[in-house]
Amino acid sequence: EKQKIDRKVQVMKIVESLIDEINNLFNNYDINEKIDFKISNVENFDYQVNNLVKYQNHKKIEEIVNKINLLLDKNELIQNFEITNKYFINLKINLTNCDKFLSNIEENILIPNPKRILIDYGGPNIGKPLHVGHLRSLNIGRSLKKLNKLIGNEVVTDIHLGDWGMPVAQIIAYCELENIDIKTLKAEKLIDIYPKSSSLYSDSEEFENLAKEKNKELNNQEKEVLEKWGFLKEISIDSIKETLFLLGHDFDLWLGESDVNELIEPMIELLKDDGKVGIDDNALVSTQDSDPKILIAKSDGSYLYLTTDIATIKNRLENYDFDKTLYVVDARQKLHFIQLFQTVEYFNFPKRDYKHVEFGTINNEEGKPFKTRDGGTKKLLDLYEETYDYIKSINKNLDKNVIHKLTNTVLTYSDLLTNRKTDYKFDLEKFTNISGKTGIYVQYAQVRAKKIIKNSKKENLSGQLNITTDEERNLVVGLLNLELVINQSIKFNEPHHLANYLYEISNLFNIFYQDENILNLDNEDLKKSKLLLIKYFLNTTKLVFGCLGIKPVEEM
Ligand code: ARG
Asked: Where are the alpha helices (DSSP H) in 457-519?
């Protein structure tokens, strides 16, 4: 235990204690800025601090600069630094202690005060297959799960199925109308029913009434319709699970809208007693002063998406205590989540952190939302198969399992590489380019690294690094940056920092490795040090692959 703490202290020394010192110094001059260590792209420097730039006209700027000079001068971790005439602070660090970090990354990135985090992502609706619109939620959600677990947080994931209400009632009504026996329905057939029933709902008043009747029966828990709903849900979940398994996703909780349905009425009663909701124009609204008014129940008594989400929070508060909930949901639902968080605050629910982790759309090559040729939503299963076939066509000799892993790599890496708020184009050719910024590139780098370790027959290397070249130094600094990149990804719930980082260290590795024939080196110590560095590279990539939800392949 003692040893663990010492190591942690060493790492903190690399970045955090220095940040603290500079922070304190700034505070003494009434500069209230959070010091931000940025990875530098200035030649000969590792990090850059830009916080001072805005204060060039500060009355005591010269005094501050002198103090920073003194502070950095005596800090043993700073090998070299400069403060430019525009007040950029450039730092080069001393790598004497880097082994302590690199040999114990996993312990070193654990945070001191873990939290309990609930991640609500995926969110498919029953009756519909998983489609391209689910890809980003699944990828980002899984990545945030793995990342939070890695730093020591406790994570519970909930797929939050859309398994109740009008869309489900429509399917049941349609089957009744067409004499389709839900019990024996196949998942493939179900896929056609959903769009048909929803267009019929908008075209035919008669069908609309039938669906509304079914919805009422559903809400009244009538036996016959409830039984049909049960079959429908089962078929759907089976097919959803199949696709999820193929894509490497799993969830702790398979709860959904239906699980909170019975909580809504008593919840509303309590809210009425507290004056938090009231009647307005025959409908039930939140009494909070807002424009527009927040609707809780329509005049026909039916509840809304928002109502279900409020009840879901209540349910979670009671059954799975959590500090924070992340909702990984399409940016188009922004207003919904603003209203949700605002409403539960107004309703005086226990204070917790809520965050809508929003994301943009995946477009096709023409920049239009990704659809099938006939305009329907593209199934994830089809996207998987197309990607699989494409990879197979460019490399026929690969083993099935390797192609499978590479397919998931492509579907995940390129997706996570884009800032989640931006839309992007799905471009299979670009995403599979072995020399581009792709999942294939990062896989290939770690395969090369594994191969050299294997050929060296020195799998259990340990000891101390002996850094002799710029390429080695750059790779070491790259590996040390993991902590900063993780902090950033966690702080903003943005896996793209990690995806970019993986590319960068893979690139640094390739540069380091390029014209070295490491195994033929005469100097045994040098050879050992280089192999050890490769091992550290592999440890780091393994962690980052894990955080992105990608499985490294053994060969390719
Ligand atoms: N099923 C919803 C949809 O398809 C997404 C659910 C997101 N999660 C939530 N708690 N609202 O739009």
From this structure: 470-480, 482-492, 496-514
Say if residue 209 is exposed, middle or buried (CB neighbours under 10 Å; 0-12, 13-18, 19+): exposed
DSSP H or E stretch at residue 339:
helix 334-346
pTM for this prediction: 0.92
Query: Per residue in 64-111, pLDDT tens?
Result: 999 999 999 988 888 999 999 999 999 998 888 788 888 888 888 888
Phi, psi of 379 (to 5 degrees): -70, 145
Task: Give dist(CA 222, CA 1) in Å, integer.
Answer: 59
Query: Using CA atoms, how far apart are residues 391 and 384, in angstroms rounded to an integer?
Result: 11
Instruction: Report residues whose beta carbon is within 6 angstroms of any ligand 1 atom.
Output: 120, 123, 125, 160, 162, 309, 327, 329
C-alpha of residue 364 to centroid of ligand 1, in Å: 23
Q: Would you call 38 helix, strand, or coil by DSSP?
A: strand
Whole-angstrom Cα distance, residue 311 to residue 258? Answer: 11
Contact between 131 and 378 under an 8 Å Cβ cutoff? The reply is yes
3-class secondary structure per residue, 381-417 = HHHHHHHHHHHHHHCCCCCHHHHHHHHHHHHHHHHHH
With b for 16 or more beta-carbon neighbours within 10 A and e for fewer, the 252-291 pattern comes to ebbbbbbbbbebbeebbeebeeeebbeeeeeebbbbeeee
Ligand 1 centroid from CA 444, angstroms = 36
**Residue 372 Cα, ligand 1 centroid: separation in angstroms?**
23
CB atoms within 10 A of CB 538: 18
Q: Tens digits of per-residue pLDDT, 440-449? A: 999 999 999 9
